[in-house]
Structure formats: C-alpha cells, structure tokens
Amino acid sequence: MRAAWYDQQGPAAQVLRYGELPDPVPGPGEVRVRVRFSGVNPGDTKKRRGWTGSAMPYPRVIPHSDAAGVIDAVGPGVDPNRVDRRVWLDGAQSYRAFGSAADFTVVPTELAVDLPDNVPDEVGACLGIPGITAHRAVFGDGPVTGATVLVHGIRGGVGALAAQLAQWGGASVIGTVRRGGQLPPRAVPYPVIALDDPDPAGQIRAHAPDGVDRVMEVSFSDNVDLDAAVARVGTVIAAYATSTDRPDFPFWPMLFDNIAIRLLGSDDFPAVAKQQAAADLTRAAAAGALSIAIGTPLPLERTAQAHERVDAGARERTLISINS
Prior knowledge:
The chain has 10 helices and 15 strands. With 324 residues, it is α/β, with parallel strands linked by helices. Strands 3, 4, 5, 6, 7, 14 and 15 form a 7-stranded mixed beta sheet that branches. The protein has a 6-stranded parallel beta sheet with strand order 10-9-8-11-12-13, with helices on both faces.
C-alpha cells in the first residue's frame, strides 16, 4: 500500500516520507478500512515535532487519527456484514503505530463508526479528534439544554464544532475570536465577541447578564481572567489548550463562584464518553447540524505540505485525499 510515515521526529519536510509499505491485516476484533480521506489535526503534527519533549512512541509512525473510508476486511470476532460499510474513524493513531495516512488502516471495530448515507466522506474525516473533544467539552458535565455556553475560538476546529453541538443540545451560544479582524466571514446564528474589544466582558455580559454556565476554552492562560469575570456560581470551564504551560488564575473569585475546571486530553477520554460522542456526532451530522470549513484536499504524496498547512494555523480543516 501507499503510505506516508516518519522514523524520527522533526520538521515535516525533513522527516515525512512517502512510499510503499506492506498491506495491514486485521487481527481479532479489528477492521481494515480503505481510507478515502485522512484528517490532519494539530495533535498529529505535534507528535511528529516531538512537542513538549515527547519521544518516538514506535520506531515508525504512520500519522493521523481521523479518517473516513470503507471497511474492506474484518478480523476474527467481527461481524462480516461490516464489510463495505462506510465509516468514520477516531483514534487510528492513538496509542497505535499506524494511522490513516495510507491506503489502508486497521483499527478496533468500535473505532470505525458507521457513516450515514447523507454525510460526505470529507465531513466524516473531520469528526474524530476535534468532534469528540468538542462533545466532551460541551456535554462532559451534563446536558446544556437552556444553558448559556461561551465558546472561545469559534473559527477553530474544536470551537466551531463545540458551538454547533451546544446549539444542537439546546444551549444559547456566545462565540469569541481573538481579534476583530477574525470575525466570521459569514453570518453565524449567535453573537460573536472580539477579544480585542475594549470591554469583552461587558460585551459578553450584554448577552448573558447573569453570567455563562459553561466555557469552552482554547487558551486557558490567556482567557481565564475574562472567564472568571463572566462566570456565575457553578460555571464549568472546559479547557483543551493553553498558551502558557503553568497558568495563573484568580483563585478566590473563582472559589467563591464554585467554578469547576475540566481539563481535556482527547487520547484518554473514558471509553463510554467516546462512544456517546461518536453516536451524537453521527446523529448531528446526519441531521445537518454540523457545518465544517474544509480546505482543498491534498494528495497523499503531499502529506508534508498538509502538516505545514496545519502548523501555519490554517483555519479550514486539512484533509489528505487517498482513495476518493
């Protein structure tokens, strides 16, 4: 099969290789998927770079955890009726050496989620890491029906899906962007606040006078003072990223408001939470509740360029087109 891989960490153009590798064979409880689109996420490029001092987890890594494709073979113990089913994948390269940047990938059957007929492969390839992280951020502390949810970074992969999932779940949403020049190019069905506004807390409070119930946080260290200023008693801050490794926060004001801080590491979400997220994401996508900005897919041999696109902060989702 054709594949992209790296044998050492470093810059994409220096370490990513493209060529032929043996076709994988599904083992017990596994399925093999002929990949149509492989999704590239910041987590994939961080692993390749050795971010935070991480070492090579395996001698060779085929990157990417997300994908969409068709099951073409199953291992022992898997229902043979799954063959020829369209699926989307999460976690193909989570604690595994060989992800989805290849003609074929092999995953445990539960990681291959049936993709409804009306959901394009391209959308399916975008649901994995960002979708499950967004779902955990929104619903990890219970339903949001009637709640007010503040979503920072609504133009990002996780933030955009979190806002849409919160609305799908019955919440009122307030979005933010880092600068006014990053306001969405098209209308969105909720207010969007620029964090470089002279008074972003006042702008948020104008839409949520009693404070917000949940905060989806993409930059905890940058925004925590603002989050504390717009919180109410019992607010949950669900944070999946920060720009400072050891952030400070206003302890006493947050204590008096009984604020909870939930930190989200997508590789280690509870299995039950991942299963619920996959089911809800599939239903929401089938209902037309999810709109994802996707850039022009790149061919497999240009995987290094795709990684560079992600590392440069591309707003549109980056996909590799493999067998589409």
